[in-house]
Amino acid sequence: MSFFRRHGPGHQNSPRWSDHLLLKLVNIAGALFVMGANGYSVISPLDVYYTGKVTYFTPAPWAFFLWPLIHLLVLGTCIYQFSSRGKEVIIDMIGWNLPILGVLNAMYIYSWANQEYKYALVFMIFTASVVSKIYKIVKMSTVRNICDELFLHLPFSLYHGWAVCLVFSAAFEAFGVNALIEPARNWTKAFVFLSLFILQTIASAYAYATAEGDLPGCIAISWFLWAVFVYQTPEKSPFVHWCALGAAIMSLCWLMRSAIGLELKIRQRNNNNRFFGGNDHESSRLLGH
């Protein structure tokens, strides 16, 4: 593969796959550990996705299947770090933020699986903070090939959107009432409505961040909102149910805005390649700017 192509004598200054080997190995170990921890939480006899605290902002259990996709993409990021381009962004720019993110994510999973929801909230806030830093670094880098899209922009756009949603979910688990035994009072309804509004604002910010928007970020938030709508049935609270439906439908508008922007950007790139004989270097972000 071109990622690991052996260079001749004239390329002594080219980065080698063994450069910063400790950090690369720590990145891989962290990605595998978090993936394993999340996988165990799914198959463990504790059945944490069905026996945890149910709040008025709890999504359907299938929403959490987004985690395996994110972890798989991050594992691809760890493989991509052995290329010269991957080393430039992942090692030189992101650095130790990636293994720190893995540790915080694992601590969140552990706390959440053991129903220590206040600790889970703290770790998720720190997780969202670190992933926001990585997200900003990735967005500032120029896309050079499809691997940049798949292993840099796509995973951290999804990760960022999903982490933002889980901050709100964890806050309700830490401080909200149990929906199975307590009715939704006015304060609960107000905080649910405010949380839905904030998530809509963030989704719109994704959609209008650039001409093509941030499609993966919009997908993560829309996925979460539809899961909340499905799980929050009218029997629990009609107000929460219909507010979640409205937010989920609105999220599709931001998603379509990003999808249309992406399609127009791809057409523009194809037109440029046609007029300039394929020598135009696309520097814009197609999936996740």
Summarize the structure.
This protein is mainly alpha-helical. The protein contains ten helices and no strands.
Structure in words:
70% of the residues lie in helices and 0% in strands. With 289 residues, the protein is mainly alpha-helical. It is globular, with a radius of gyration of 21 Å.
Query: Which class of secondary structure composition applies to the elements?
Result: mainly alpha
Largest sheet: none
Total helix count? 10
Tally the beta strands.
0
* Averaged pLDDT: 86
Shape assignment: globular
Strand content: under 5%
Sequence stretches where pLDDT stays below 50 over 5 or more residues: 1-12, 276-287
Q: Level of helix content? A: 55-70%
**Run of helices and strands:** HHHHHHHHHH
Rg to the nearest angstrom?
21 Å
Termini gap: 28 Å
List keywords for this structure.
mainly alpha, about 70% helix, about 290 residues, single chain, disordered N terminus, about 0% strand, 10 helices
What topology does this entry show?
Blueprint: H1 21-43, H2 48-51, H3 66-80, H4 84-94, H5 97-113, H6 117-140, H7 146-175, H8 186-207, H9 215-231, H10 238-275
